[in-house]
């Protein structure tokens, strides 16, 4: 579940997205099907339950495989140097039974294509998801290089919307 801090961050994001949601400009919300993101969507849509929401496993966070849920210290104990190798090459280095950024992008591309085909260019859709996958999606939609994607600052509690097939990041206020 979301922590108190997480709930505050989402509520701050809602302040940013409120006008977009309230004006009826968002035709649909797409979201990861995992619990914390579902909570995020519930908070974002409080008071406006008319926007359809589609949950998808394809929008889940980058898979960390055998290292999922482990602290950096525990990963380093299991696989000395992994954190450094991954920091130098997020696009190529994958944890055992997990995904690199390249793998995650390839997983999400068909879902993004389907989303884009199902909406007119002038429609606005909102995507709620996870940090690494959010960076990947935004960068892909904006045509960023791999290096530019890695520099996208996506704070916790962020959301982004797509309008005219381009992504726009909505940051929570600090």
List keywords for this structure.
single chain, 174 residues, alpha/beta, 5-stranded mixed β-sheet, 7 helices, 15% strand, globular
Topology:
Blueprint: H1 4-22, E1 26-32, H2 35-45, E2 53-56, H3 72-78, H4 82-88, H5 101-117, E3 124-128, H6 131-142, H7 146-150, E4 159-163, E5 166-170
Parallel strand pairs: 1-2, 1-3
Antiparallel strand pairs: 3-4, 4-5
Helix pairs in contact: 1-2, 5-6
**Biggest beta-sheet profile:** 5 strands, mixed
Overall form: globular
- Strand order, largest beta sheet: 2-1-3-4-5
How far do the termini sit from each other?
22 Å
Strand content range: 5-15%
N-to-C series of helices and strands: HEHEHHHEHHEE
Mean pLDDT: 86
Q: Which regions are unreliable across 5 or more consecutive residues at pLDDT < 50? A: none
Q: Helical proportion? A: 40-55%
Continuous helix count? 7
The number of E-state strands comes to 5
What structural class do helix, strand and pairing data support? alpha/beta
Q: Nearest-angstrom radius of gyration?
A: 16 Å
Quick structural gist:
The chain has helices spanning 4-22, 35-45, 72-78, 82-88, 101-117, 131-142, 146-150; strands at residues 26-32, 53-56, 124-128, 159-163, 166-170.
């Amino acid at each position: 579940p979301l922590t108190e801090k997480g709930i505050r961050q989402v509520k701050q994001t809602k302040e940013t997205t409120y006008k977009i949601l309230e004006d009826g400009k968002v035709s649909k919300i797409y979201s990861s099907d995992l619990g914390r993101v579902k909570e995020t969507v519930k908070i974002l849509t409080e008071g406006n339950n008319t926007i359809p929401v589609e949950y998808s496993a394809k929008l889940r966070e980058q898979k960390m495989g055998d290292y999922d849920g482990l602290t950096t210290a525990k990963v380093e104990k299991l696989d000395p140097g992994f954190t450094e190798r991954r920091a130098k090459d997020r696009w190529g280095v994958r944890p055992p039974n997990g995904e690199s950024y390249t793998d995650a992008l390839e997983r999400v591309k068909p879902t993004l294509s389907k989303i884009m085909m199902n909406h007119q260019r002038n429609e606005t859709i909102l995507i709620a998801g996870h940090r690494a996958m959010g960076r990947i999606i935004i960068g892909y939609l904006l045509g960023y290089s791999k290096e530019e994607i890695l520099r996208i600052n996506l704070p916790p509690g962020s959301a982004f919307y797509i309008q005219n097939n381009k992504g726009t990041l909505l940051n929570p206020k600090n």
